[in-house]
Write a structure and sequence with these properties.
Number of strands: 28
Shape: globular
Strand order of the largest sheet: 11-12-10-13-14-9-17
Structural class: alpha/beta
């Protein structure tokens, strides 16, 4: 037994011994991890490691229980135990770890007594994954999930108390809108005056206030508001239809859980006793219902820990109330508050700029983030001329980042509203930047996938009228819309489900004609329902796809679009497998449908996919990127027009700005435009007040001067005959942004709309098919196709490192230059030819042998592929080759062997016009009609410049070949091959000499007359192999 003083020493030593496990945390994080009992508010700033704290706190609860946070020593503790603990704290010995843990444990928590609620499935998954790494398999028994997922688990167990069955369906927003649309139509309301989405907003707010349909209707009738009464009647009908369909929408999931806990004492007591510790993440974004749920669950032990940042409360439009976090201390008397202010994400400059902006808000708890990171780059504020200029600036900086070694995925572009993405997307497409929009069409929003989900939902819950009506004639079964409407009318009139009517169609005179087809459909669904209970989920899904005829329908249509749709139908299997691998409870069809219904777009963001991410600022919450662009930072856009003059709305917008800025780890760009077209209207907006709130020492400006600063400069500047022109870097240089112009260089006029942008009109930059180019971001490549488009051109370029990209020429030309290819050459008097590169030899065999190479002097030496006679035009799909040539005359030794081993579909080969070009005293040769002057090999006496233009690819001197060149199908590269072998005897000087362009590749020099050339192939022709053919 210990006396009181020894007990206190024991508790102190126990706490210190437990703290040794968490030395990797900073002091405030450690305090939070060790505070286990009673209400706790963690004010966790952006990037302060709150997930790490949550994980260590849960680990502490499971390992030591309340050992680190109680003043009771166990009755069995002896002075020897106290001495051991105090000794261990002074000198921790791994060999004594087990004994230390035994002495420090006080009521350790079992995993299922802990519930940790996050806002996204992704966050919940990360929490579980990290806990499992730390604690082992037992971590899987912790309830780590979103509010909706946790509520679904509670409802599946007890929802029958509220009159639903446990196989209820979850309606997503699109499903809810369809039901509202039907009701608006049935009530003869004008859909423009009563937009379904707007009505859903009213219903959602009513549910958040715990008002059911009848309560809301009474309230609206009392208020006497005609419009609200109509909306309330729609709500009441919506509620009725969902109940009939045994369906819940997203709001119902939480509302019904709260109703269940409040109205049924035994259910409430069960969960209050079950959950000893309740942890809520992102508490600043909770609405009234979520607050009620959290406080009810924690009502037993009151061990509630809420983590949040009042400066990141940005979901007011969804009903979130910042009051929940601001009033936490008044609701829970004696609550402890711990501030996590050390930031591990951003540089000092980014952090100081963010702090300066948020400091202007009044409704906040107050905290100052700090970091041990270096100062880093200043926040780059760029003022563009318009939205095109802004988009091109962003694209240029991303290309610069990529060429400096950054991955595409390290860049994120954030905007206030989705409409702003349009110009950015166009700029990215023009410049070949891969991107992905979070919030675009999601996989599960595609029609064919929704059809499959509708089948699964209808199998799981036959009373789901909405899903049933979607699939009853899909694929077509001869059940027309009129029949379905009649069946729906009967169902409504008799208070039965649509399934009930369809499965007993012969009982209704109105359906007699369609009864056989309806019965056939009912039998199919009944069979599927039976199979769903007998087969494994993946096998059942494949059976469903076949039995319904959906796959057959898409196969028969056989268009590219339908093939893609069929792939999507099969892709659902991946989601099923993913669900099976991660299922917490016993896997089931209902469980899979729940997971899909709760699936959010951010969960589909795969950080391993290498592309630039574009999203709204709201969607970026919880994410971080090395480089962040916040675009459209202008009054009227950000802050939005609705926030101007509204103090609470403005504070919300400022919090959103703080969230956007604190996503950046290393570089932060904030851009605005002097004028911008949005929704078809052009406006001139002032730069946002948020930019003005950043102290100048943390900002680097470039681009146009904002109007106010321009006017200021004008007034400051004394009148001069020749006013100095101010230099502004347009920000498009691939080097450091905003580099000052050299003293001797002419200063670009910042007033000029063309400054720094691709020319709007005039001649196109001088790039042609066959040109070798060096791109600043993508490296070396070959232009394989040029397609004029309006005042621009679409170019296809095969790059060595990144494959083929399609770029718009005007934009791309800013970042690339032509590369002149100079092959190596050796010359020898010996006329024999030997193919020495095995790789090349292999591909020559693939297209029918190397006869034309082996026997250049034979009277019937043939080229490869389908011969094209002199002056002929190759048929589509033919491989260009030489027709029969007689070796005679002064040019008897000249042979050009074109071997184009194209492992491509025939459709990929363009028509190549060929024409004979006779050399004086030499045999007929095939020339390329699209050459420099429509001729074949330039003669010896042709102008030097003409010879310099001769290229191995494209305008190949003397030999016609489409420049469809791809890397070899070797070592994982694409299986596109083009091998070109050019051999020939050179003629003498003068006009009558045989043309010898074979040795004059793009200025490669002229060999002595009468010599043979060793030709090293262009690296694009044979991948990495430059050595291919040798002439000895």
């Amino acid at each position: 037994m210990l006396n009181r003083e020894e007990e206190l020493r024991f508790c102190k030593a126990r706490r210190a011994a437990i703290a040794l496990d968490y030395q990797n945390l900073n002091p405030e994080q450690r305090r939070a991890a060790l505070a286990t009992e009673g209400p706790l508010l963690l004010l966790a700033g952006a990037g302060s490691g709150k997930t790490t704290v949550l994980i260590h706190r849960i680990a502490n609860l499971m390992k030591y229980g309340r050992g680190s946070d109680c003043d009771e020593a166990p009755a069995w503790a002896a002075p020897a135990d106290l001495a051991f603990l105090e000794g261990y704290v002074q000198n921790p010995d791994p060999a004594q770890k087990a004994e230390q843990e035994r002495l420090c444990r006080v009521d350790p928590a079992v995993p299922w007594s802990i519930i940790a609620i996050t806002f996204t499935n992704k966050a919940a998954g990360e929490l579980k994954e990290r806990l499992e790494r730390m604690l082992g398999p037992s971590a899987n028994d912790i309830w780590a999930s979103t509010f909706h997922s946790a509520c679904v688990r509670i409802l599946r167990r007890d929802i029958d108390r509220l009159g639903f069955t446990s196989s209820f369906t979850i309606y997503d927003t699109a499903d809810s809108e369809r039901v509202i649309k039907d009701i608006v139509k049935d009530f003869n309301l004008d859909e423009k005056a009563f937009a379904p989405r707007s009505i859903l907003g009213y219903i959602s707010r009513a549910k958040d206030a715990m008002k059911l349909g009848k309560d809301y209707l009474q309230e609206c009738e009392k208020a006497g508001d005609y419009r609200l009464v109509k909306i309330a009647k729609v709500y009441a009908e919506y509620e009725r239809r969902l109940r009939e369909a045994n369906a819940l929408d997203f709001d119902d999931i939480i509302l019904d859980t709260v109703r269940l806990l409040q109205n049924f004492d035994d259910v409430r007591e069960y969960y209050q006793k079950k959950f000893r510790y309740v942890l809520i993440d992102e508490y600043q974004d909770t609405n009234n219902l979520q607050y009620l749920l959290a406080s009810t669950l924690a009502g037993g032990y009151e061990n509630i820990c809420v983590v949040g940042d009042d400066d990141q409360s940005i979901y007011r439009f969804r009903g979130a109330t910042i009051e929940n976090i601001l009033s936490f201390e008044s609701q829970y008397k004696g609550a402890r508050v711990i501030r996590l202010e050390q930031n591990y994400r951003s540089t000092k400059n980014i952090l100081e700029a963010s702090n300066a902006v948020i400091r202007n808000n009044e409704g906040r708890k107050g905290k100052e983030l700090w970091t041990e990171h270096e100062a880093g780059d200043k926040v780059h504020c760029y003022t563009a001329m318009n939205e095109h200029d802004e988009a091109q600036f962003v694209a240029a900086q991303i290309l610069a980042g990529f060429s400096a070694g950054r991955g595409w995925r390290e860049h994120a572009v954030l905007y206030r509203m989705n409409a702003q993405s349009n110009q950015l997307e166009q700029a990215f497409k023009r410049n070949g930047i891969p991107y992905r929009i979070i919030g675009g069409i999601r996989f599960f929003d595609r029609a064919e996938v929704k059809d499959m989900m509708a089948y699964l939902c209808a199998v799981n819950n036959p009373n789901d009228d909405l899903r049933l009506s979607r699939i009853i004639n899909n694929p077509p079964r001869g059940i027309g819309a009129t029949t379905v409407e009649r069946a729906q009318a009967i169902a409504q009139a008799e208070g039965r489900s649509l399934w009930d009517v369809v499965s007993h169609a012969k009982d209704f005179p109105e359906l007699q004609k369609a009864a056989p087809r309806l019965s056939q459909f009912a039998e199919l669904m009944a069979e599927l329902r039976k199979l769903s209970g007998e087969m494994e989920l993946p096998d059942f899904y494949e059976e469903l796809v076949q039995r319904t005829g959906y796959a057959v329908m898409l196969e028969q249509k056989n268009t590219v679009e339908d093939r893609t749709r069929l792939e999507n139908v099969h892709e659902v299997l991946s989601s099923i497998q993913n669900y099976l691998e991660n299922a917490v409870d016993e896997p089931s069809l209902a469980g899979f449908l729940d997971e899909i219904a709760l699936y959010t777009d951010l969960d589909s963001h795969d950080p391993s996919e290498d592309c630039v991410v574009m999203m709204t600022m709201h969607s970026a919450k919880g994410l971080e990127f090395p480089v962040v662009f916040v675009v459209g930072v202008e009054e009227g856009i950000f802050p939005g027009i609705r926030a101007i003059g509204e103090a609470e709305e403005m504070e919300e917008e400022r919090r959103l700005c703080y969230v956007a800025m604190t996503r950046a780890k290393e570089k932060l760009y904030m851009t605005c435009a002097s004028q911008r077209m949005l929704f078809g209207r052009t406006n001139s907006n002032r730069p946002s007040r948020f930019l003005g709130e950043i102290p100048p020492e943390y900002v680097e400006k470039s681009g146009r001067l904002p109007y106010a600063e321009r006017a200021e400069r004008e007034t400051e500047r004394p009148a001069r005959r020749t006013p100095l022109r101010r230099t502004f870097d347009r920000g498009f240089s691939m080097g450091s942004a905003a580099a000052p112009a050299s003293a001797g260089a002419p200063a670009p006029d910042w007033k000029s709309p063309a400054a720094g942008r691709a020319p709007a009109g005039g001649a196109l930059p001088g790039f042609r098919m066959g040109d070798s180019v060096q791109h600043k971001a993508f490296g070396r490549g070959l232009i394989t196709k040029v397609t004029p488009m309006g005042g621009d051109a679409l170019v296809e370029i095969a790059f060595d490192s990144v494959g083929t990209k399609k770029l718009m020429l005007k934009s791309a030309s800013q970042y690339m230059k032509k590369e002149i290819f100079r092959p190596n050459g050796q010359f020898s008097p010996n006329g024999s030819i030997r193919v020495i590169d095995q790789l090349t030899q292999l591909h020559l065999r693939l297209v029918g042998g190397v006869e034309g190479v082996k026997h250049p002097h034979g009277p019937d030496a043939h080229g490869l592929g389908r011969p094209a006679g002199a002056g002929g035009v190759l048929e589509e799909g033919a491989v260009p080759g030489l027709g029969p040539q007689q070796g005679q005359g002064a040019g008897e030794g000249l042979r050009v062997a074109l071997l184009q081993a194209q492992l491509l579909d025939k459709d990929d080969l363009p028509k190549v016009p060929l024409q004979p070009v006779a050399g004086q005293g030499g045999p007929a040769q095939l020339g390329y009609a699209g050459g420099e002057k429509g001729h074949g090999l330039p003669g010896r006496g042709a102008p030097g410049q003409e010879r310099l233009r001769a290229r191995l690819h494209g305008h190949l001197a003397g030999v016609g070949v489409p420049s469809h060149v791809q890397p070899l199908g070797h070592d994982g590269l694409r299986r596109h091959v083009q091998v070109i072998v050019v051999l020939g005897e050179l003629g003498g000087d003068g006009e009558d000499g045989v043309a010898h362009g074979v040795a004059v590749f793009a200025g490669g020099g002229e060999p002595p007359a009468g010599q043979k050339a060793v030709v090293n192939l262009h690296p694009y022709a044979v991948g990495v192999h430059q050595r291919a053919v040798k002439v000895e």
